[in-house]
Amino acid sequence: IFYERFGADVKRLGKILLMCCVPVIMFTSCKTRSAEVRDRAFIRCIGVEERENQEYVSIKIFGGDASEVYSGKGETVFSAIENAETMQSKNLFTGHIEQIIIGRGNLSEKLETMLSNNRITPACHVICTEENAEKIVKESDIPSTLSSCARKGTIMDRSISDILRGLKSECEMSVVPVIEGESLTMGIVSGNGIEKVLNDEESKGISWLNGRISDTVLALDRNTDFHIATSNVKIKTEVKQDDRLYIDFEVSVQAENSTGEKNNLAIEKIKDLCKSATDVCIYEYGCDSFGIENKLKLQQTKFFNEHKDNFREVLKNSVVRTE
Questions:
Q1: Which residues contact 117 (CB under 8 A, 6 or more apart)?
Q2: pTM of this prediction?
């Protein structure tokens, strides 16, 4: 009887109470999230190196003073980051790290640890060094420098996942940007760290053979520039009767205001850069930094399966041509 007489009023009252509660819940939720953000410091760049058998980290945060670096040490990278939190009042958040500078220690183990709990994105860019990582973090604007050099094609940026993919490939090597002194170039790395620091020409050649050149200028001589809009690379593999692997790189370029004479000079210049990269990466170290293994799996499956256990030697004895 009560519900029949007052049911409609009860429903209206319930709706009113619900409408009053929703803003309160939303406001409380927003306030909580806002507080969480204010309590966090977002890491932009981090240096990681071994000191006295412990991991040592050097951290720069977004919006912080350019010269301000927080440091910490611990048994693992993440425990070192937690210890660095004691130097300031906020929780250090690793989800937006742009660059990691890795110094002394086992490279493969460090990268695997960083991806072990999904706190660092696999797309985070990596730089290696044999020098003091803390000093580099303190004195350099690494994110801006790396981005600028990658656009110009002087180096090729590499993510955690890129490097681990190379280290887990049949050649067990990869290439990565390397800081040595005042120079930022490329280097060949194994799971243990840097094996070879490349010079400027070799580093540019790696970018060319990976199709990373765009919107840049190629100096042909002291008075002549070649303006490149975009570039592209195709890889073809072939196995001939001598049972050797033949690798052909086809480099194509779209250029601005090019002439016949300029084109010929540019072709020779690009070939020289590519040759300098293949000489050291393929012939000297047997390092596949160009996607050759993936092409072989598709184009020469039987040959790859028969030779994958000595893939580095196959690369060292291959014939490489650039057109």
A1: 78
A2: 0.83
